[in-house]
RNA sequence: CGGGAUGUAGCGCAGCUUGGAAGCGCGCCGCGUUCGGGUCGCGGAGGUCGUGGGUUCAAAUCCCGCCAUCCCGACCA
């Protein structure tokens, strides 16, 4: 492959586009790899498409190696399968819907579990056909409420999705492990810095699930990692270890106290510490001794809304993202003034457990930090009064527990107790053990060796291919521009000619020789000034830059490494063997 | 959906406060010049000032509505 910049469909931009914030987005647009077509929708220009294709190829090779078979569904899908699985409703606004001239409903596929399941149901009916893994690399559509950061969160994006079909749980486990191994190989080959973390299965349903997160400060996912053991989890999926049980009989009976002028946790703690009769003998009161009952509105997919009260320690916030992972597909939202007006029993700022509970019409869940035997100060359901020494399990109970309190840097590891470190990442892959949810809904069964109908168990596995392009750019760029790893660069060598004493001709010949030696070559034959040629070469980010310039008169060229910036002189005739022999 | 900001030439922006002939830089076209880090000079092409209404002799500028985009929070590959 030989690309000449004089004819390549490319225009680099000197300035950052106004709508781009994160580095990968800015650089991919400036370097002429992609262009925005609509919010969250991008056009792939020749160089960008080359990178996309390379990433696809690596993914494809590893999926094939893992024994999965490629096929491809349409992006335009009929309503019916999604109606059957319940997702026509569950997916809500996130789904692009359209109608044909006859008034039939269609959608642009946000994911394809239904289609795969139905296809296998159509074609297979025996346990002898299993196990089976199928995949496709395809464009997905999701009407994201907020597309962001260029390719990182688009409304149209390229995804590799695969599905495994097994007769039993052990088979599913094997298929899952194969996919996991294939993902590790794929992301290693692409040169990514990533972690594998425990995840919630979310809207997909099912049980075990892990995410592959590329470490990156602008990532949208927060995860924790244990400093001492190998525990790692998305913050949504962290399980807080229950505090050691305390002896409730050691606590005095609960008593209501007048606490005027304490609208906030902070003022309440201050007052508790200031009152001689309430002061703790062992240590001062802190916000962590208070129980905060936060009201949220739980909105169900069918539009129904109900209040839900979540009890968390007063020094922590309710993390709506974590909460949602446990109450999905319902979505928790903050309460509005109107919502509070509809529930006069809930006195804002003073909500106590004795008015809560499913039996009283308001569902009440507590975070695991609120464990049996723990002692709390909390609201007494009227302004200016609080209950002290209220013991969970003795004085009040909830309808259940839910992991909802925010996770902090330094929180104990659920496995070994060492402090957790919190960090951010970009979700580049997600693997699920779906189980039988879709197979049951769509009636995918096979006959086992005894001739009995058995429901198939499934796994679902995704890689965000277009997102990977941006993620790699994000992890590898520097202040001068893109800086591709060799495995995904749109070319191997960028040849630049500067000067007029025959350099252009020599560069062109060198480029042709490099191509003949099997390298992918980009040559800057535009005849622009050296400054422009060098700056663009650094912006485009091809790993090796060869300069045919000043030293050409002595038969020398300069070979630069884009990443390290190192430069060395080589005789012109040695370049091909040197670079091709890499 | 809540909060913040922005819409003026292909791109990046000024002009708006205080209404009075649409500007600058980059890019693009032509001629010359220069040639290892965005050379310099001369001459050009290119704009319904997001949109609808209002005020006014006169609106990019003032007022009202709408639309769009970006950023920050709740969703996901």
Model description:
The mean pLDDT is 84. The strands form seven sheets. Strands 4, 8, 9, 10, 11, 12, 13, 22 and 25 form a nine-stranded mixed β-sheet that branches. The chain has a six-stranded mixed β-sheet with strand order 1-27-26-28-29-30, with helices on both faces. A hairpin with a 5-residue loop joins strand 29 and strand 30. By secondary structure, the protein is an alpha+beta fold. The radius of gyration is 30 Å and the shape is globular. The structure holds one RNA strand of 77 nucleotides.
Q: How large is the radius of gyration?
A: 30 Å
- Note the beta-strand portion: 25-35%
Give the fraction of residues assigned to helices. 10-25%
| Extended strand count | 30
- Integer average pLDDT: 84
Terminal Cα separation, in Å?
17 Å
Question: How would you describe the shape?
Answer: globular
| Helix run count | 14
Characterize the quaternary organization of these chains: single chain
Low-confidence stretches: none
Largest sheet: 9 strands, mixed
Structural class: alpha+beta
How would you describe this structure in keywords?
582 residues; alpha+beta; 14 helices; globular; nine-stranded mixed beta sheet; RNA-binding; single chain
Describe the structure in brief.
The chain has 582 residues and is α+β, with helices and mostly antiparallel strands. It is 24% helix and 29% strand.
What does the secondary structure layout of this molecule look like, with pairings?
Blueprint: E1 2-4, H1 23-30, E2 34-38, E3 41-44, H2 46-65, E4 69-70, E5 76-78, H3 80-85, H4 87-90, E6 96-99, E7 105-108, H5 113-123, E8 132-141, E9 156-166, H6 169-189, E10 194-198, E11 209-215, E12 221-226, E13 232-234, E14 255-258, H7 265-274, E15 291-299, E16 305-313, H8 320-327, E17 331-334, H9 337-341, E18 363-366, E19 375-379, E20 385-391, E21 400-401, E22 420-435, H10 437-441, E23 445-447, E24 453-455, E25 457-464, H11 465-476, E26 493-497, H12 503-516, E27 521-524, H13 530-540, E28 544-548, E29 556-561, E30 567-571, H14 575-580
Parallel strand pairs: 1-27, 4-8, 16-18, 18-21, 26-27, 26-28
Antiparallel strand pairs: 2-3, 5-7, 6-7, 8-9, 9-25, 10-11, 11-22, 12-13, 12-22, 14-20, 15-16, 15-17, 19-20, 22-25, 23-24, 28-29, 29-30
The chain binds one RNA strand of 77 nucleotides through residues 11, 13-21, 39, 94, 110-111, 140, 142, 144-146, 148, 153, 157-161, 202-203, 211, 220-221, 320-321, 324, 331-334, 426-430, 462-468, 498-500, 528-536, 547, 549-550, 558.
